[in-house]
Amino acid sequence: MGSISLFNTVDNLYNTMQTTADNTAQKTAATQPGDKTSEDDSVKLSTTAQAKSMYKQGQSVSTIAASLGTDTKTVNNLLGITLEKAIEKTLETTLKA
User: Which of 17, 31, 38, 45 is such that its CA lies 20 to 30 A from the CA of 83?
Assistant: First the structure.
């Protein structure tokens, strides 16, 4: 019984690999040189641009840091936030309340 199960597993693995190879071949054959794909239309933002965009959307520095896989000190540097600016913003927010 064990050898039949192993055979079925190997057979399933082979079929999966063959299907993947066939799909890749079809995509490659369907794409002609000079054709645009959805990947051509995407833009990769720099870490600084991502941080600035997220900050403008109202996300906190700690949330941005977690999303970018970095620490808050790095995000503060990317955004140009100094200790003085952070204190000033905190005071403004506190005084408004």
Answer: 45
